[in-house]
Amino acid sequence: LSTTSTILPQEKSENPLPAISPSLLSDSTSIHNPCYMCGSTGQDRLFDADDFDGKGDCYSLYQCRQCGLVKTLPEPSPEALMEAYSQSYYGGGGNGGGETKFVTLIERWTRYSARKRAVALIKSHGVAGKKLRVLDIGCGRGVLLNAFEALGHDVVGVERKGSPFEGLPNIQCGDLADLNLESTSFDIVVLWHVLEHVSNPKIVINEVAKLISRTGSLFISVPNFGSRQAKVFKAAWFHLDLPRHLFHFTEFSLGNLLTASGLSIAAKNTFSLDQNAYGFLQSTLNMLPGLKNNHLYELLKGGLSIRLALWMLCYIPLVSIVSFGVIIELLVSQIQHCGASLTVKAVIKDD
Ligand SMILES: [Zn+2]
Question: What is the value of pTM for the model shown?
Answer without folding.
Answer: 0.85
